[in-house]
Amino acid sequence: MTRSDLVNKLAERFGQLTQRDTEFAVKTILDAMSDALARGHRIEIRGFGSFSISRRPPRVGRNPRSGEQVTIPEKLVPHFKPGKALREAVDAQPASSADASRD
What we know:
GO cellular component, one term: cytosol
Subunit structure: Heterodimer of an alpha and a beta chain.
Pfam family, one: Bac_DNA_binding
GO molecular function: DNA binding; structural constituent of chromatin
Radius of gyration: 19 Å
Family: Belongs to the bacterial histone-like protein family.
């Protein structure tokens, strides 16, 4: 599902909202989540999951072309851990319908 799919689904479900209002609401929520993660906060949505920041320590890698060693700096990356309800909902879906929904 893309952002535009989400906007369309919400606009259909809530007829009192215009497409523009729905787009603004989705953008505002996602921006607030991005800002919170950028500040190092943890986001928890009950029944869905939690977002946090994980630290990848610096390491030494190799340049695939020359084979020389390259220092890779530390990185902070977002991490998502699904909640129990989401895991159970996904697990309950038959595999054939999950494959069809990707198209």
